[in-house]
C-alpha cells in the first residue's frame, strides 16, 4: 500500500508540473483551457471554474490540458451555435492564437518538467554531498591501473564528454559496450590523456575499469546552483543516451518499464531500502525519483512523435516555414494515429512489466 501511495504521489507531482506548464502559458496567451485533468479513465470528481473543468481521473497515470479548438474540439459547439443562428465566440480557441503563443504553450509542458527537476536538484544537493569524479583508489592489475590511471586522479572527460560527477564516469562506462575509452585526467594540476580498455566481469556481465570513487563534497553557497545543474545534466544524459540504445536495439525488454514496473521496481524497492534509515531518507529518495522521472517526461515529450508535444511542435514549425497552418483535421488524424500507437504500446509495456515482475 505504501508503495502505491508513494508512486501516486511521485507520478502526480511530475504530471501536474507538466500539465500546469501548458495551463499557465495557455492562460497567459488568452487560450481557453476546456479541461485540466490529472489521471486517465473515468472521472472520480470534478468542478467547473469559469471556462475550465478541473478533473481527477481513476487511473493515476498521465494527465491532460485540453484547449478550446485543439484538433477541432470545438467544432460541435460551433456547428450547434450556427444552427441556432447564434454567433460562436472562438476568440479563446487554440487555433486562433498566433503561432508563437501556441509554440510557447506546447513547449511549456516539458519546460516545466525541467524547472521542477532543477528545484528538486537544488534541494538534493543542498542536503546531500556531491560525488566528485576524483578516484579514491584503483584496482592493482585492473584496466585503469594498467593504463596509468592513479588514485587521486580527477577524471575530467571520457571520450571527449566532460565529467562533473563520478556518476558521469559510471554512465559512460555502462553505455560504452566495452569499447576502448579515451580518458582525460587531472593530476597535480596537469591534464593527461589516457587510453583504457574496460574489462568484462564474467560474474556481473558488465564492463569495469577497476576504479573506486568518487570523493564526496558538500555543496555550499552559489555552488549549489552549479551542482544542481550537473545533477540535471546527468539525468538528461542518462535519458537521451538510454533512448539511443533503445532505438538501436541495444536494450533488452527487461530494461524497459512502464507505470507498473516503475511502481514496483523503482519506487517500491527504493522505499524498502530507504525506510530503515528513517523518514528523511525516504523523502530524499522519492525526490530523487521525481527528479529523474521529470527529466524523462520532459525529454520524451519533446520527441518529434505524433500525439506528443514534440509532434505538435513539428506541425507548428512547419506552419512557421509555410506561413500557414496545416489543416486542423489532417493534423488531428496524425495525432490520433499517434495516440492509438501509444495506447497499444501501453498495453505491451504493461504486459512486459507483469512478465518481469511475476515471470
Strand composition percent: 15-25%
Secondary structure tally, helices:
10
The pLDDT mean sits at: 84
How many domains? 2
Oligomeric assembly: single chain
Rg of Cα set: 24 Å
Range of helix content = 40-55%
What is the CA-CA span between the terminal residues?
A: 22 Å
**Order of SSEs, N→C?**
HEEHHEHEEHEEEEEHHHHH
Bulk shape: elongated
Main sheet?
4 strands, antiparallel
Low-confidence blocks of residues? none
The number of distinct β-strands equals 10
Structural class comes to alpha+beta
Main sheet: which strands, in order across?
Answer: 5-4-6-7
Q: Could you describe the 3D structure shown?
A:
This protein is an alpha+beta fold and 359 residues long. It has two domains: 197 residues, no CATH class; 88 residues, PDZ domain (Pdz3 Domain, Roll). The protein has ten helices and ten strands. The strands form four sheets. Strands 5-4-6-7 form a four-stranded antiparallel beta sheet. Strands 1-2 form a two-stranded antiparallel ribbon. The longest helix has 31 residues. It is elongated.
Question: In brief, what are we looking at here?
Answer:
With 359 residues, the protein is of the alpha+beta class. The chain has ten helices and ten strands.
Amino acid at each position: 500500500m505504501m508503495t502505491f501511495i508513494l508512486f501516486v504521489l511521485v507520478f502526480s507531482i511530475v504530471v501536474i508540473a507538466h500539465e500546469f506548464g501548458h495551463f499557465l502559458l495557455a492562460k497567459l496567451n488568452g487560450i481557453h483551457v476546456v479541461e485540466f485533468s490529472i489521471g486517465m479513465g473515468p472521472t472520480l470528481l470534478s468542478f467547473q471554474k469559469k471556462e475550465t473543468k478541473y478533473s481527477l481521473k481513476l487511473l493515476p497515470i498521465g494527465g491532460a490540458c485540453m484547449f478550446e479548438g485543439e484538433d477541432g474540439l470545438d467544432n460541435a459547439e460551433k456547428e450547434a451555435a450556427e444552427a441556432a443562428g447564434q454567433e460562436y465566440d472562438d476568440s479563446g480557441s487554440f487555433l486562433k492564437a498566433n503561432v508563437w503563443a501556441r509554440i510557447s504553450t506546447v513547449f511549456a509542458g516539458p519546460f516545466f518538467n525541467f524547472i521542477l527537476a532543477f528545484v528538486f536538484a537544488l534541494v538534493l544537493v543542498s542536503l546531500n554531498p556531491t560525488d566528485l569524479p576524483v578516484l579514491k583508489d584503483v584496482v592493482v592489475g585492473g584496466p585503469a591501473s594498467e593504463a596509468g590511471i592513479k588514485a587521486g586522479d580527477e577524471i575530467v572527460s571520457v571520450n571527449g564528454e566532460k565529467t562533473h560527477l563520478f556518476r558521469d564516469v559510471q554512465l559512460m562506462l555502462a553505455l560504452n559496450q566495452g569499447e576502448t575509452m579515451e580518458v582525460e585526467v587531472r593530476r597535480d594540476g596537469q591534464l593527461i590523456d589516457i587510453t583504457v580498455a574496460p574489462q568484462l566481469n564474467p560474474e556481473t556481465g558488465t564492463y569495469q575499469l577497476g576504479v573506486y570513487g568518487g570523493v564526496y563534497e558538500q555543496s555550499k553557497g552559489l555552488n549549489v546552483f552549479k551542482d544542481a545543474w550537473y545533477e540535471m545534466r546527468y539525468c538528461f544524459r542518462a535519458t537521451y543516451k538510454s533512448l539511443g540504445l533503445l532505438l538501436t536495439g541495444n536494450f533488452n525488454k527487461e530494461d524497459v518499464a512502464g507505470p507498473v514496473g516503475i511502481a514496483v521496481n523503482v519506487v517500491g524497492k527504493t522505499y524498502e531500502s530507504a525506510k530503515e534509515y528513517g523518514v528523511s531518507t525516504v523523502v530524499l529518495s522519492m525526490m530523487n525519483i521525481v527528479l529523474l522521472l521529470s527529466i524523462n517526461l520532459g525529454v520524451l515529450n519533446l520527441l518529434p512523435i505524433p500525439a506528443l508535444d514534440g509532434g505538435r511542435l513539428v506541425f507548428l514549425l512547419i506552419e512557421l516555414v509555410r506561413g500557414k497552418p496545416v489543416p486542423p483535421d489532417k493534423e488531428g488524424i496524425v495525432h490520433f494515429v499517434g495516440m492509438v500507437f501509444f495506447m497499444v504500446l501501453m498495453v505491451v509495456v504493461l504486459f512486459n512489466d507483469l512478465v518481469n515482475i511475476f515471470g
